[in-house]
Design goal:
Largest sheet: 8 strands, mixed
Radius of gyration: 19 Å
Shape: globular
Number of helices: 10
Helix content: 25-40%
Number of strands: 14
Distance between the termini: 34 Å
């Protein structure tokens, strides 16, 4: 059997972008049409078709959110053209991060994918996760979920050499975050409230152009693993803790291999080994431009990152639909 690491070197580094491009192009046909499920379904089917063309024995360990009631690339689904013979690859994905954003033609919806060698990604249940993240360049341990928002902001500010009121924090705009937002504003922090898409929100801490220093608050656990994979590639820091609503969810988490579902998760608990991350913009955001459809095809803007090398590539794709398979065009 071919080792997964050698296949990542030879094949999957840029092929990942082709997968997210396919999902983004398919979803782009539904931007602003008000139909979240149709947009999600289009992205799912395009991503599945593209994944099944890759020479790997892939297993989805982080799949489409069950809460969306959309056709899923489900946890445990096998993908790839070399089942039983190819390298074993774990896959985390969100074919359309920001279904509501897409339906309403809002900013920053993405098609997202992360891969690792078998066992490299946390098999997280579809529950909420409390998240805390900063980008690269800070001393290890500068953030800690065991500390208060005030303590974390103060620590990051000190490491950055600025006052706490100069720190900008990204938070999902949800009623459950009212106390968090009030505490941050009492310190004078700037807050970037996002309506959806917390994978993009977490990753924003890695890009100085966004001006975002930190991410705080709770969102989906699967999205947390995807974000951790991205930050692993560029040296950022992230911690998470699963949040459960009932014992059934706790039991499910244990069944997925989490011996202590309530433990604080470090970035290596969520994504370790040789990890790669790719995303393609569906609508415009601070990091990636959305799909531009032309008379003959489309133009896409993507990012691909790898933890082994620390390389970050931005890829602009010009697609001629006359030369693409129907599954790619959407």
């Amino acid at each position: 059997m071919v080792k997964a690491s050698s296949t990542l070197d030879r094949v999957l580094v840029l092929e990942m972008v082709r997968v997210t491009e396919a999902a983004a192009i398919a979803a782009s046909k539904l931007v602003g049409r008000g139909d979240e499920k149709a947009a999600d379904a289009a992205a799912v089917e395009a991503m599945r078709a593209a994944l099944n063309e890759l020479p790997m024995d892939g297993t989805v360990v982080i799949g489409e959110g069950e809460r969306d009631e959309a056709p899923m690339l489900y946890i445990g689904e096998k993908v790839g053209s070399a089942q039983g013979s190819g390298p074993r690859i774990d896959i985390a994905l969100d074919p359309l991060e920001g279904t509501t954003i897409t339906a309403q033609a809002g900013p920053n919806s993405l098609a997202v994918l992360a891969i690792a060698e078998e066992g490299g990604l946390l098999n997280a249940p579809d529950v909420y996760m409390n998240k805390l993240a900063v980008g690269p360049g800070y001393p290890e341990g500068v953030i800690d979920l065991a500390k208060s928002p005030t303590e974390n902001v103060t620590a990051v500010a000190a490491a950055k050499g600025v006052q706490p009121n100069e720190i900008i924090v990204c938070v999902l705009d949800r009623p459950r975050h009212e106390k968090l937002i009030a505490e941050l504003r009492s310190m004078g922090c700037g807050i970037v409230l996002i309506p959806d898409g917390d994978v993009a929100g977490v990753i924003a801490v890695s890009n100085p152009e966004t001006t975002i220093d930190m991410y705080m608050g709770s969102g989906g656990a699967p999205e947390g693993v995807l974000a951790a994979a991205a930050l692993r590639c560029i040296g950022g820091q992230m911690q998470g803790r699963l949040l459960f609503e009932n014992e059934e969810q706790v039991t499910r988490a244990r069944g997925m291999g989490l011996a202590d579902p309530s433990k604080k998760l470090g970035i290596l608990d969520m994504a370790h080994g040789d990890v790669m991350f790719a995303a393609t913009g569906v609508t415009d955001g601070p990091m990636l431009r959305g799909v531009r459809r032309t008379a003959t095809g489309a133009i896409t803007h993507s990012i691909v990152m790898r933890s082994k090398s620390g390389t970050v590539r931005f890829v602009e794709g010009h697609h001629n639909f006359a030369r693409k398979p129907a599954s790619f065009v959407g």
